[in-house]
User: Fold this.
Amino acid sequence: MDKFLISGGRALNGSVAISGAKNSALPCMAAALLTAETVTLHNLPYARDIITQRRLLEDLGATVLTPELRTHKINAAHIEVFEAPYELVKTMRASVLALGPLLARFGKAKVSLPGGCAIGTRPIDLHLKGFELLGAEVRLEGGNVVARAPQDGRLIGAIVNFEKVTVTGTENLLMAATLARGKTVLHNAACEPEISDLCELLNRMGARVRGSGTPTIEIEGVEALGGAQHTIIPDRIETGTFIVAAAITDGELIIKDCQPEHLTSVIEQLREVGVNIEELNQSTLRVTRGTALRAKNVTTEPHPKFPTDMQAQYMALMTQAEGEAIITETVFENRFMHASELQRMGAQIHLNGRIATVTGPTKLTGAPVLASDLRASASLVLAGLVAQGETVIERVYHIDRGYERIETKLRAVGANIQRLRESVTAPLSEDAAPDATALAS
Ligand code: EPZ
Assistant:
């Protein structure tokens, strides 16, 4: 398994381009299952989860052409398999996003129940309750969710009140409702920008979705959907990660191809702790620091509040801030795995259930650390950039899942970071791109 070797202490300087959003690309790829016509997606991130989703679509019988690296032409005219197997779902929970489209278009679907993961139990009960409200018969069988639409194979529009805000739950029900008979209303729906991006694609395919980006989404079901072209929005979490990278190294970064309005809460929070963030234009930020960082409490909540996917990166930054910062994680019950690794680097962090108290500033020193999940690994990379000496991060396959060539992007702005491959211990040459087979492992 690959590792990262980071020699810290360099201020980052230069410009970095943001890739497409993983958490929009995944549901948009699944949406192609709703039609027999071709869906063309541009600005896909070159990340491992996208390759896994592609493999799932191909296993179901779809064809996926790649005219260029970040464009996929997906055609689901000949779907022969209606099952997302355990082997795939265990590597990527978002495989459950196949459930809604398969059930809506073919009246049947079988998807392995995703188990828990490092950050929490993450049940999908709210997805399943939603499908039952749309008339589906849902049962668990041998670790699989087996779902069937009513007699005539079509779901029936209904009112769904989500007990909790769920992003993929909203996306699954959204997609299912586009082909249902009649109207569906989703209440307490997630408002993440990725939801609005999916709705934009669905409406281009001929769906009738209103209210995306608000807690109430209305979907008028249609007989069939057509093909469409769509460009995936920039990744707001990758943007936030690079803002923190500039701040934690006291460097200067120009962040291009981003969409600042998608991470307003993050930008506001970071400005309040002393990070200068200038919007040079609608898709470019200039980030500097200049003054000492001030500690500030934060609570993670669904969009538009502070995203849980930025919590780990924020914790790394708070190790360098003056004072005490209380970080409250309300979305996932076990999302502080990175804290103990940051403590190994000398950070002062006290954990109490869903509350972490970070006291700073502390001088971090390089150490061997272990990545446990996607965003935790990003926080360890950030800590390694500011730590004195060398940090070795193991299991970086976690970061490859959602960040496109992060070490290449960081090296281009002055970081001393190398990918050590399990087999060849010598670091890769300057701009060697990770090859697809390695990422797919
Ligand atoms: C999405 O996960 C994202 N993944 C996650 O990003 C992100 O952390 C999360 O939303 C919250 O913003 C993708 O979009 C692929 P949820 P999702 O359903 O949809 C509970 C990353 O780092 N819940 O909104 O799985 C659940 O346990 C990843 O890129 C139920 O109880 O998250 C959690 O506590 C990590 N029952 C809360 O709701 C359900 O049926 C929110 O989960 C569904 C969810």
User: Anything to note?
Assistant: The chain has 15 helices and 24 strands. Residues 23, 26, 94, 120, 122-127, 164, 166-169, 308-309, 331-332, 374-375, 402 surround EPZ (CB under 6 Å). The longest helix spans residues 48-60.
